[in-house]
Amino acid sequence: LGKGASWMTPRVDIVGAQETEPHDREPARVRMDEWMKGEIARLLPTHWKLVAEKSGETLEGLPRGLAFRVLESGAAVDLRNDDQTARLTPDQREALKAIGIRAGRVAAHVPDAQKP
């Protein structure tokens, strides 16, 4: 694995078999890349929805920014140091909950990222 555009989209490279032709290596690399995307989608479904399906784009304002922060952090965001006047309304919390993000007064997190 190599560095991709983000931590959710690593680059898959084939190590070894340098003597094979590029037209033989590329289908194998594409297959491994598709497998990796499938595994990420299976293990981190909420993150995958935010990245691939762009479910966070249905949000506006504070919830959208919070969804982006959770995605960038990987699992959770501490809200204790945030501006006290900018709090989520119950409707905004429900919108986040609909895409798989739980938000409270202290933190916002993705529960499926914390399962063993």
In which range does the helix fraction lie? 40-55%
Task: Tell me the strand percentage band.
Answer: 5-15%
Give the distance, in angstroms, between the N- and C-terminal Cα atoms. Answer: 22 Å
Query: Taking all residues together, what is the mean pLDDT?
Result: 85
Order of helices and strands: HHHEHEE
Cα gyration radius (Å): 18 Å
Give a written overview of the molecule.
- This protein starts with 21 loop residues before the first helix and ends in a 7-residue tail after the last strand.
- Helices cover 43% and strands 7% of the residues.
- By secondary structure, it is mainly alpha-helical.
- The protein is built from four helices and three strands.
- It folds into two domains: 43 residues, no CATH class; 57 residues, no CATH class.
- Strands 1-3-2 form a three-stranded antiparallel β-sheet.
- The chain is elongated and about 60 Å long.
Task: Describe the SSE topology.
Layout: H1 22-43, H2 45-51, H3 62-73, E1 76-78, H4 90-98, E2 102-103, E3 107-109
Antiparallel strand pairs: 1-3, 2-3
Helix pairs in contact: 1-2, 3-4
